[in-house]
Design goal:
The protein is built from six helices and ten strands. The chain is of the alpha/beta class. It has one domain: TIM Barrel. An eight-stranded parallel beta sheet has the order 7-6-5-4-3-2-1-8. Helix 1 packs parallel to helix 6. The protein starts with a strand and ends with a helix.
């Protein structure tokens, strides 16, 4: 079965069109001021009318407070929250109840033991995402979108009770191998389809989605 794709960090109509026309199953909008991909609720509200039925709009945030959660939840068309910080299982459950939306929890991975932390979230999350843990020597690292990958064999053969997604350092050239090695049912890309931080390249988005379809 072909893996599903998520194009994250979308901030303009051209990137959104390339994603949905190319067959992305998820599109992500980043609500995190430190990120070069940061967008405001008003900016996303202008984009979500371009998201067709069958494509999930995901709002990525990092340890959001209730005010930000409410502002994001008020954006028409947002379907899911992606939580990329140190949110506890209780916080996930609170956001899920507060918004009525599905929630995805991201985990940072560099070794097999890093997967253990996901166990505590299985009852409160709707989806899991495994991203690369940034090296300690990397300065000014973001919670995601750092173009860093990890050993995909760590995930090989894992049978999670929830849908899950692979992220971290993926691009059109390596995503096929990443899917084959990890067995990921879904993949997430941000920096791997950019010409510079935050600048999505519609051509690279199309190329990435074609590589996913060709995997397996």
């Amino acid at each position: 079965m072909t893996a599903e794709s998520k194009i994250c960090g979308i901030s303009d109509a051209a990137a959104l069109s390339a994603a949905v026309d190319g067959g992305a199953r998820y599109v992500g909008f980043v609500f995190f001021p430190r990120s070069p991909r940061n967008v405001t609720p008003d900016e996303v509200a202008a984009l979500t009318p371009g998201v067709p039925d069958g494509v999930t709009s995901v709002a990525l945030s990092v340890d959001p407070d209730d005010a930000l959660v409410d502002a994001i939840n008020a954006v028409p068309g947002i379907d899911m929250f992606q939580l990329h910080g140190g949110e506890t299982p209780k916080r996930l459950a609170d956001i899920r109840q507060r918004t009525g939306k599905r929630v995805m929890k991201a985990f940072k991975v560099s070794a097999p033991e890093d997967l253990v932390s996901a166990e505590a979230y299985l009852e409160v999350a709707d989806m899991l995402l495994f991203d690369a843990k940034t090296p300690k020597e990397m300065t000014n690292a973001l919670p995601g979108g750092n173009a860093v990958s990890f050993d995909w064999t760590i995930l090989s053969g894992r049978d999670w009770p929830l849908p899950w997604m692979l992220s971290g350092g993926l691009d059109p050239a390596n995503v096929g191998d990443a899917i084959d090695i990890s067995g990921a049912p879904a993949v997430d890309v941000s920096s791997g389809v950019e010409t510079s931080p935050g600048a999505k390249d519609p051509g690279l988005i199309v190329e990435f989605l074609a590589s996913v379809r060709g995997a397996g």
